[in-house]
Amino acid sequence: MALAKLKSDTTEARLAGVTLPTGAAWANAARADAMARVREMGLPTKRDEYWKYTDPTTLTDAAAGKAALFHNDEAALFDAVDRVRVVFVDGVFDAEASDDLAAEGLEIERLADAMAADIHWAKDIYGVLEARGQKPVPRTLAALNTAMATDGVVIRATAKAAKPVNLIYLHRDETSDAVLHNLVKVEAGAEVTLLETGPAAARFSKLLEVDVADGGTFHHVRAQGRDHERRAVTHCFARIAAESTFKSFTLTFNGVLTRNECVLEIIGDDATAHVAGICVGDGKDFHHDDTVFITHDAVNCESRQVFKKVLRNGATGVFQGKILVKEGAQKTDGYQISQSLLLDDDSQFLAKPELEIYADDVACSHGSTSGAIDETALFYLRSRGVSHDDARNLLTLSFLAEALEEIADESLAEDLRDRLEGWLARHR
Amino acid sequence: MLEIKGLEVKLEEEDKQILKGVDLKIEPGMVHAIMGPNGSGKSTLSYVLSGRDGYEVTGGSATLEGNDLLDMEPEERAALGLFLAFQYPVEIPGVGNMTFLRTAVNAQRKARGEEELSAADFLKEVRAKAKSLKIDADMLKRPVNVGFSGGEKKRNEILQMAMLEPKMCILDETDSGLDVDAMKLVSEGVNALRSEGRSFLVITHYQRLLDHIKPDIVHIMADGRIVKSGGPELALEVENNGYADILAEVA
C-alpha cells in the first residue's frame, strides 16, 4: 500500500467518531486548526522515518489496549516535598484529591476553565508551540492531543514560585485512554518547578507546552509510572527566550511502550536548555523511545541532551536526538550523549544522533555508546566484599549518575535515586 | 595464614601457562615480599588468589587459615579476610568514596554474621583513619578514585585496607606511580597496620619500597615459580646486581 494511502486510512480510522470539544471561540479555532494539521500530516505508521524504530500502531489505534494496574507499597514519590498537588485519575482532574490550586508566584487553573474564557493568555500558547514544532518533522499525535484534550492544567509563573507544582497521574481503570494537555507560561524573571509522577492510564497521550520569557527559569522533573503494560506518548514543546533556563528530566520505569518527544526552540540569546532522561527496562516487552529536537536560533546559547538507558532481558531502547543550529546562531554550545547499559545479549539500543549546523562559530558534540558492565570494576568491588548483584547495581547507578546530576534540586534527585535502587534490587 | 602449594595457572582464553608450581607459606604477622622481572607471574598470583576471572587453575591449592580459597567467589574471599591493593585502582564515577567504603565494610560484616556498623560509628572511624593517611574530607566525598592522582589512589587503597581490617593483605606493585613522599605516606599507612594477626604479601619490582615496608622474607619469582627465597638482604642483592645474576645462579 502506498504510504499516503496507509497514512490517510490510519488517520481516518482513528478519527471516526471523534468530536471536538467546545469552548471559547479561540479554543474552538485552536482545536479545529489542530484537527486540520492531523489530517494534513496524517498519523504516523512504522514506515515514517521517525517511527522506524518504534511501532506507533497501538498509539494510533482507535481503541486503547488494556493495562493491568501495578500495585506497590512504596510511599508516593516526592512525598516529603512541599508542593501543590494536582491529581488526575485516568486523565480526569480530581478536585477532592488535589490541593488548592494556589501558591505564591503562581496562577493555576484547569485547562477546561481557561479554554472556556473568551480572553485568556493560553490563547497565545495552546497549540501554538505545538504547531511551531511540527516542522521539519511532523508530530501528528501531538496535534491530535491539541484537538482532543479537554483536561489538564494551565500554570502561569509571575515570580519565583513558593513551591513546585506536582501533577500526579493515577491509574485506576485497566482500559483507560487518557489525554491531557498542560501549559506553563513563565513570565520574565519568574521561576517554577513542575513535577509529574505516575502512570496516568492504560494509554496516555500527554502534551506540555512551555513558554519561558526572558530571564525565566523552568525546571521539570518527571517520573513515569511503573505499570508494565501501560503505553504513553508524551510531547514537550518549549519556546525559550533570552537568558532563560529550561531543564527537563524524565525517569521511566517499565511500560510496554513509551515515546517521549521533546522539541525545544531557543529564540533568545544566552539561554540554556537541558533535557535528560533515564529509562530502566526489563524484558522483551519493554520499549522506550526518546526523541529530541533542539533548535538553536539565537546567539551564545547552550543545550545539553543526556540520555541513559539500562536494558535487560531483551528490552529495547531508542534514542533519536537532533541539534539544529540555524544560520546566525553563533557561539552555540551543543552537547548530546546517549548511552545504554546492556545487561545481556538480547537487549538492544538503537540510536540516531543528528547534527545540522548552519553557523560557523559553534561547538557541538555528540556521542552514543552501548556497553556491558565493566568487568574490572565489578571485580574491584567484589574484591572489597560487595556481592556480585550489589556490585552490579552500584555500577549501574554509577552509569546513570551523569544523567541524575542534570537534576538541579538534590533532594528530588535523591528521591529518584532511591527509586532506581529499589528497582535494581527487585530486578536481580 | 596463607598457604600455597604447587599452584599452576593458565590463561582461560589462550593456552598459556603463567604459574608453573608456586609454593609459598606465610605465617601470621609476617611480611613477605615477592620480587621478579616483568612477566614472571607476580600480578597473576595476586589476581588468582583474590578470584579474578580469566584464569584457570590447573593444579595445586591455596588456603587461607585452612579454607580453600580457589573455590570461592571474590567477595567470599574478602569476607574471610583477604585483601588485594590494586596496582591500578579502578575509577567508579557516580559512587561516592564514603558510600563505597561503607557498602564494603557492611557487606563483609554481614557475610561474617556481624552487625552492620552504624552511620555514626562508621563516620568516626573513617575520619580518624583517613586523617592519618592525609585523606581529606573532599577525597572521601568524591566519586571513588575519580580525578585522584596516582598517590591519592594508592592512599585510598590503604584506607580501604585500614577500614576492612583484613588478615591477609596483598599489595600489588603499590609503589608504581608514586613519588618518594607518597611512597613514604603509603608505607607508613601499611606499617601502622602490621600486627601479630595480620600478614602481608608485598609484590614489587624494586627494592626501594622494601626500605619502607621491611619484609621478613623475600622471594624471587621468575617464569611462574619462586626460584629463590631469603632474608631482606636478597632485595639488596637485586637492587645492586639486577635479576640476571640470581636467575643465572638458580638456572
What does this structure look like?
The complex is a heterodimer of chains A (428) and B (251). Chain A is of the alpha/beta class. Chain A has one domain (21-378). Helix content of chain A is 23%, strand content 38%. In chain A, strand 3 and strand 4 (106-110) form a beta hairpin. In chain A, helix 2 (25-41) packs antiparallel against helix 6, helix 7 (375-383) crosses helix 8 (388-404) and helix 8 packs antiparallel against helix 9 (410-426). By secondary structure, chain B is an alpha/beta fold. Chain B has a single domain, classed as Rossmann fold (3-Layer(aba) Sandwich). Chain B is built from 9 helices and 12 strands. In chain B, strands 6-9-10-3-11-12 form a 6-stranded mixed sheet, with helices on both faces. Chain B has a 4-stranded antiparallel sheet with strand order 2-1-4-5. In chain B, strand 9 (168-172), helix 7 (180-193) and strand 10 (199-204) form a beta-alpha-beta unit. Chain A binds chain B through residues 374-377, 379-388, 390-391, 394-395, 397-402, 404, and chain B through 50-53, 73-75, 77-79, 83-84, 86, 89-90, 92-95, 100, 103-105, 107-108, 111, 143, 160, 164.
Largest sheet of chain A: 10 strands, mixed
Question: What's the name of the CATH homologous superfamily of chain B?
Answer: P-loop containing nucleotide triphosphate hydrolases
Total helices of chain A: the number is 9
Beta-strand content of chain A = 35-45%
Class inferred from helices and paired strands of chain A: alpha/beta
Strand content of chain B: 25-35%
Q: What letter string, H or E per element, gives the SSE order of chain B?
A: EEEHEEHEEHHHEHEHEHEEH
The unreliable regions of chain B are: none
Number of strands of chain A: 20
DSSP helix fraction of chain A: 10-25%
